[in-house]
Automatic annotation (TrEMBL), chains A, B:
Upper taxonomic lineage: Bacteria, Pseudomonadati, Bacteroidota, Flavobacteriia, Flavobacteriales
Residue ranges constituting the Nudix hydrolase domain according to the UniProt record: 18-149
Organism per entry: Spongiivirga citrea
Domain of life: Bacteria
Name assigned to this protein: DNA mismatch repair protein MutT
Short name of any one Pfam family annotated for the protein: NUDIX
InterPro entries listed in its UniProt record: NUDIX_hydrolase-like_dom_sf (IPR015797), NUDIX_hydrolase_dom (IPR000086), WH-like_DNA-bd_sf (IPR036388), WH_DNA-bd_sf (IPR036390), WHD_NrtR (IPR054105)
PANTHER family per record: ADP-RIBOSE PYROPHOSPHATASE, SLR1690 PROTEIN
Amino acid sequence: MSNKTSPWSKDWYKEHDPIYIATDCIIFGFDEGILKLLVFKRRVEPQKGAYSLIGSFVKLNESVTDAAKRVLEEITGLKNVFMEELRTYNEVMRDPGYRCISIGQYALIRISDYDNELVEKHGAIWYPFNELPELVLDHDIMVKDALTRLRRKARYQPIGFELLPEKFTIPQLQNLYEAIYQKQMDSRNFRKKVLSFGVLIKLNEKDKLSSKKGAFLYKFDYDKYQQLVASGINFEV
Amino acid sequence: MSNKTSPWSKDWYKEHDPIYIATDCIIFGFDEGILKLLVFKRRVEPQKGAYSLIGSFVKLNESVTDAAKRVLEEITGLKNVFMEELRTYNEVMRDPGYRCISIGQYALIRISDYDNELVEKHGAIWYPFNELPELVLDHDIMVKDALTRLRRKARYQPIGFELLPEKFTIPQLQNLYEAIYQKQMDSRNFRKKVLSFGVLIKLNEKDKLSSKKGAFLYKFDYDKYQQLVASGINFEV
DNA sequence: ATTAATTAACGTAAAAAATACATTTATTAT
DNA sequence: ATAATAAATGTATTTTTTACGTTAATTAAT
């Protein structure tokens, strides 16, 4: 640190340049068997009609997470989304208006929990991940980075927790993993593997929406999951 | 994003609060078989004598990485250190002076490449990782986070590249991994595993410093390493 | 010149994990 | 009663990981 002036004095700060800080949200959802992303369609100029991520400036008296939660609640009506920091986007010229650093944050959510009318009323759209339009600024890069992170995260955390409804079937869970990794998996091996973690509780109910036989519903054993994460388990499938 | 004013116009920015942005560097080194961290001992009040990480404010016309490189070169004389972003530390009250977000960045370096006199002249010290003093602000947390990240990183990248001298022996590489993971490994299995990656080139020279028999020196095959990283290999040992 | 000391180098067998692969089962609609 | 549909299940093979003891090369001391 510079030591021309005493750190932690007002004067010391005045020697430096404050910068605008924004946060952009990369929100993954899973619905109807496909991975989706929450995007925002601009309704005013400039760039009217262009798509972007949902974002906001960070205020002096709020943390970055709080800023993201604020804008997300505004647009989707959902509170308590667990946001995780991705990385900063801090290139000097990334924003044509003014020097602005954006902190990317991502989350996985259950689309079914949302108030979809509210989402659409605010101009936000759940877009199938495979058909995403081009996004403004460096938002495409943010999305690419988030997918990479999501794949890595899935290796040490059972992400189904966050993306699936409370009760889900094993074929649904497999769909999710296939969507994230973009590849087919063997259903026998998949089932064997996920059950071996011992964090799934089989319920006495079936979901009959996708087959005549119906598939048993499961839920996560949250306590057991916490123990396993603490022990450093690898949840890779 | 707020749409009271057109984004990317000067006025739009003026509605928001700029914030001070700093970067703090968590620099790991490996020397004499032990993992070390570069820390800075404050020579002026307040907190004279306290230890901190090396850091700097980010200027309007420099990227966060450039800011870190600038301060690192100043203190250690080393240019071109490859810094990687850890995460942001953005709690509203983390800094008692003023709202300031710090972006933690970490690097692994070869201590032998450094100008140690320069390091000490600037009041920096290579501290054995296991004997670290308490650090100011939230720097202790940054260090803890960086070690976690380093361990994770080691799973998909051969970090020896960055921490060891150009020529190194397999026992030295094992020491490094034992230091990072804080556990003993079996030398036969370790050797087998690291050689199986196919990124080590055996040289016709021995290092006789640590044994009478001497150990063969190796170097990394950088091209092959790049290929393997691209293919998503797991370098876990 | 011989011996003692020191760390490097090496291979194999057993256990565990990952993979490949096909049939039967429960249910609904006709 | 039958056809249609997706769910559920097991086993053999291959690959990976783990556990473990002996010999080899060199230097320093005698």
